[in-house]
């Protein structure tokens, strides 16, 4: 294995199907259905996907969803706003976990 | 010994679908009056720039007007370039085209209005009922300037406001359309979505109105192809176009309804073939001087790999998406 996270691997995502075809087919159906426009537009769903990719730190998904977002008429400026929204929520989540420390301290300290 | 080039992947794909690409009766004469432009955009398939010197000579201008006078089927004169306004006989071509009763469209880059002596263009367009098709890759300054050069967005906004001020898109008869090319190696967004976003943004932030927005795919030729190669994007972009091939775009392809005239009078199936110097099929009229509408009707169209650009996704033409 030459390297982890090789961008050429993205084209081989579907190779995983060979190991569990029925589960893979179910995933593909679910994935396609989840991204069909509904109450949310396709573009809104792509932005959700991009934000999840960012905070999940998946290079494949960030690469792929950047291209998809550009093809939805968004620009890197739009994506910058999305990544800051996602990152700030991630920061807030980290801080919210501080409540555990806050509560633990209250319980055991005099 | 004559060597025959093997059919392109595009041609083989059409053959596999049981057909070839044939034109209908041409309804538009698209005239490229030269490659000189006040801009040098990264995506330009003409390689146009201020350094270019190719200009349509007088005899070709006259021959184009003569063809229009003889062929009533050609309802539209579509003038392009370069910046066509820089041609010394541009205004005369417009006036005489209109006098022949033709719809006249001009592919206008907006910033040429700010070249010395061109401030009166919006008034001229309005006085002659020209349909103006303006380049605006994106409604955000950053994206537009990345493709077309620093400061272009601000001047484009001023240019659009000047067109609105003389009545464009405030009066039904004065049609102002926008053209958007992706700012990079990716397909255009859904035309309706981008039109809606652009309309809302330009009105709210700049007080600008327009009729329609057309999305056009960047063609993998000339300056854009050179950029694709330099940036290591060429293979991936071609694969993207080919994978997105959409047969429902075929009936509306612009090569089926127009004849493209080069600055030197040579005839082509489209502006892209013109830039590749891919002339009409053998046996067809080669120049505007032997234009024959009957022979040009239902002619086979010459294709190449670049044709995947017009058939990808929702398709691409001078009038925007096709499917």
Textual characterization of the structure:
The complex is a heterodimer of chains A (110) and B (323). Chain A is mainly alpha-helical. Chain A has a domain of 70 residues: AhpD-like (Up-down Bundle), CATH 1.20.1290. Helices cover 66% and strands 0% of the residues of chain A. Chain A has five helices and no strands. The model of chain A has no long low-confidence stretch (mean pLDDT 94). Chain B has twelve helices and eight strands. The longest helix of chain B has 16 residues. Chain B starts with 8 loop residues before the first helix and ends in a 12-residue tail after the last helix. Chain B is an alpha/beta fold and 323 residues long. Helix content of chain B is 33%, strand content 11%. In chain B, α7 links the parallel β5 and β6. Chain B has a domain of 214 residues: Alpha-Beta Barrel (TIM Barrel). The mean pLDDT of chain B is 93. Classes of the chains: A mainly alpha (110), B alpha/beta (323).
Biggest interface goes to: A-B, 12 and 15 residues
The separation of the N and C termini of chain B measures: 43 Å
Sequence of secondary-structure elements of chain B: HEHEHEHEHHEHEHHEEHHH
Q: N-to-C terminal Cα separation of chain A, in Å?
A: 55 Å
Mean of residue pLDDT of chain A? 94
Largest sheet of chain A: none
